[in-house]
Write a structure and sequence with these properties.
Length: 125
């Protein structure tokens, strides 16, 4: 596999957010900010690469080479995938991968670590 697009049935998220209990409006706002940032990143890949390279003190060509292997999905794509069950399938596949590699003892239910309802509600801003 050379790219995230080579694995149509799998995906590996690049960020996780752990929500605190009892503060749903704050959590929605945090997710909405992350969605906005991710959408900007998807719309401006060259600028994103340049900014990431500068922030990391890394060679821009190397960052660009790494970025070639990742498809940055938009909030709209992730909301659609959440609603139709695609994201759950990806995350379940990721959990099974971690079981096979010994990182997890058993595969947890996706609902125990992905709040799809929070993600879709935050997108309806």
């Amino acid at each position: 596999m050379a790219s995230t697009e080579d694995s149509s049935g799998s995906a590996f998220p690049t960020a996780f957010v752990s929500a605190a209990k009892g503060k749903p409006e704050r959590d929605r706002k945090v997710v909405a900010v992350l969605q906005e940032a991710n959408d900007w990143r998807a719309a401006h890949p060259e600028k994103s690469i340049a900014l990431a390279a500068k922030l990391l003190g890394a060679d821009e060509a190397k960052v660009a080479a790494d970025a070639e292997h990742v498809k940055t999905m938009t909030t709209a794509e992730l909301v659609a995938g959440t609603k139709d069950g695609t994201v759950d399938k990806w995350l379940d596949g990721m959990s099974r991968f971690f079981v096979r590699t010994g990182q997890l003892q058993k595969s947890p239910a996706v609902s125990t670590f992905y709040a799809g309802d929070l993600y879709t509600k935050a997108a309806a801003r």
